[in-house]
Queue: 3 jobs
Job 1
Amino acid sequence: MQEHQELIEWTSVEEVILNRRSTRAFKNEPIPDFMIRRILEAGRYAPSAGNSQPWKFAVVKSAEIIEAMEKDAVKVARLFMWLLDYNRPSFFRRVVLKPYTKLIIRLQKNQLHPVPFGLLSEIAKGNAPVFHGAPTLILLYEDVRGVSCPATDIGICGQNMVLAAHSMGAATCWIGLVKLLMYLPKWRKFFGVTYPYTLNDLIAVGWPKVKSDGIVPKEVQLVDWYEGGMNSRPRVERQGE
Ligand SMILES: Cc1cc2nc3c(=O)[nH]c(=O)nc-3n(C[C@H](O)[C@H](O)[C@H](O)COP(=O)(O)O)c2cc1C
């Protein structure tokens, strides 16, 4: 069986998985509605714990709304950096506030991890956009009443959408930074984000403006293979080499 698998080419699904990249430059022309519906369908058919389907979707195609989202997200990014960037040249900030800001960063360690923190800083300086000028945004609401871990279900659902979009030649980018807007009651009200829903991610979708630079290397994973009995140690395989 294994020999047989090694002989065959990548399947079309594997090809899409391997070639998909996040795109951050989109053409103005949106993808047609029928494609958006097909992408939503891929999400709707995602597996979920207990088949609870703890999601709700919204499609934003209005340039006016997307522009307003962009402006407000940048404002929140600026506020965050004003509050949290303790390296700014101010004695009060560097010495007095530093321990408190460090504590906040530690408590919000996922949200304020160096990668999003670095991006946030660039957004605040006006060097990077939040929604990348995408003509269409698919909002992924999470129903917190979902069985087990609804965030996992949302990830699977969104990835189904992303892969479906790429299989049709469209480009996507997950935007976790939509969370910036959720600090503003105005946007929570606008998009109806009230219990039981939260909005942590959206998917920007459109036609790519640039050609992706192809498959990028990913970390090699050390995978334990348990093939012997209870008393034997797993064989470690370097996956990806
Ligand atoms: C849940 C999630 C949230 C993300 N949020 C953002 C985001 O807010 N802005 C952004 O530019 N990219 C975002 N990304 C894209 C990642 O940066 C990207 O997937 C990663 O760098 C790997 O690159 P690749 O998608 O081209 O393989 C997000 C990805 C995921 C899965």
Note: The mean pLDDT is 92.
Job 2
Amino acid sequence: MMSARRIYMDHSATTPVDPRVVEAMAPYWSEVFGNSESSHFFGQEAASALEQARQTIADILGCQASEIIFTASGTEADNLALRGVAWAFWRSGRGSHIITTPIEHPAVGRTVDQLQELFGFEVTRLRVDGYGRVNPDDVATAIRPDTILVSVMTASNEIGTVQPIAEIGRICRERGVLFHTDAVQAAGRLLLNPEDMGVDLLALSAHKFYGPKGVGLLYVRRAVPLVPAITGGEHEGGRRPGTVNVAGAVGLATALRLVEDERPSECARLTRLRDRLIEGILASIPDSRLTGHPTERLCHHASFAFLGVEGEAVVIGLDLEGIAASAGAACAEGEPEPAPTLLTLGLPPEWSIGSLRLTLGHLNNEEDVERVLDVLPGIISRLRSLR
Ligand SMILES: Cc1ncc(COP(=O)(O)O)c(C=O)c1O
């Protein structure tokens, strides 16, 4: 029997927009609608809202407003960071070596692949340990005289592991190498201060923290060379051309303010729910394991591998019970594909096909966790009996 209420436990995929954010954005659709680059009154009004949003974000991140570039997504912010820096160095002939990890989101991973394959950049992909953590000493060893950029995600969308960003940042500073981090999963869950983290470029996406879809940002420290990844007019100082989504920028700023203000209490609440979920699943399901780090992990993130079970089948089983979750790997032509990240962590393929991610948020309470704990063991044992 399906429970009456649907349960959403996929907050790392996206989040519902907070009604307070919707309210803050409301005037910027049809009342204050000007193009922020127009010099007339309508443009000035939009520009003033845009600059206020930029300042709010800068105050939260502890940086200058001029260091924030609005983009249309987290993906675009990562692309701008990587291509922007790589092309700037390419132009000046000052090196072509990039250091990253094998477990980045495709927004970083595929962009680096393309820089390597089409533009001839050399790439070092650092090894990660069984929890998906980078050893900062490996970064120090990998840096060469021609290294232009290090890119390591703040926290993993797949396994929730948080990286030692400040330590890597310190090494990059000492060695004079630029450092980019994809912090898309970290907003509202970790304190984000580029100065303390030692990062030069940092990407965020509003829809991951109760803001609207279709707006992100890139923090770029002053004086970091950046060639625009898309070309056009003068918006965002020419670094990200295209008419700016003012309503989106206001929504992003409002959402960031709210999640940052509520972070201590919300993270404590979610940590309790997460730990109950992890403990309950590991205790009631044989041949199950937590993926990612047991303690250095995002407060809302629980991820698992189940021996001999396809993650996608578990997601379908949960969906039939009214519970929305996600799997780390998709089926290709009917054959279960192991999740590349889990293989990288050293999990055997028979474990790596069975990944499940449950990500908590505003929409969840204790009852939801107990409901998952009630139905998941049955789903896994039914799937195992079918093999
Ligand atoms: C770690 C990480 N980076 C980048 C992205 C891409 O963000 P967007 O959906 O805004 O393009 C995501 C989204 O899943 C993510 O989890």
Note: The pocket of pyridoxal-5'-phosphate is lined by residues 73-75, 78, 105, 107, 153, 157, 182, 184-185, 205, 216 (CB under 6 Å).
Job 3
Amino acid sequence: MLSILPIGCYGSDLDHKKCITMQISPTTIIDTGAMLSSIPTEELLKIENVIITHCHFDHIKNLPIFADFMLSMAMKQFNVYTTETIKKQIMDHILNNLIWPDFSALPTRKNPTINFVPIEFEKEFVIDGISYLPIEVNHIVESLGFIIRKGKKAFAYSGDTSYCDNFIDHVNDEKDIKVVCWEVSFPNRLENIAVASKHLTPSMLDSELSKIKRNLPIHTFHLKPNLENEIIEDMNNMKTQMTVTAMKQKKPINIV
Ligand SMILES: [Zn+2]
Ligand SMILES: [Zn+2]
């Protein structure tokens, strides 16, 4: 079965609302905003693959600490799938032996804790029978969305993005997509901030949905936790005929 389990589905942290981590299988997660505080230790040890959509803090937040955990707890290696550009951003600014140790060379360079696996836009890769097609989306830094597929079932995941025809074209072209996970970060009132930071509001998402050529269930994520009620109120006033629901943490979305 194909599913997505939001471990953390917010664009920041507040109380129990956590930064972005989406679990696709027991071994594989997208982004590391919430892993350590929200996944039990024995489940953390099963994670072998971390896919990073972009370098922003709410997405890489737990990566340095997870590397420390995997080394000190189990001497285990894990894979980090991301682009060369994003890898360099993480290495230059986080794992630079100043902010945090270089876990791509610890305990040894030959057999390190973090094994970077380079990925490229529009080049599909497969982990445990699930394929991932990286799509370039429209964010303030290089950023990935995905078409995630198992057999004849697929869903689209926008990552952090503003208006993005490339993402829309992929959703329209890929007939096996059953569900779209789409970011919404700010309420309509703060559209100027959404535009400046390359995110979406419900009314901006509404105009994106008008370009989708069939009716699909939409699950939103990356809401700013302190503005959640206002964003959901705006979502309830969207013009689209599609069902638009805010993701809930620990509530899996099954692709059927
Ligand atoms: Zn973000
Ligand atoms: Zn971002």
Note: Residues 63-74 form the longest helix (12 residues).
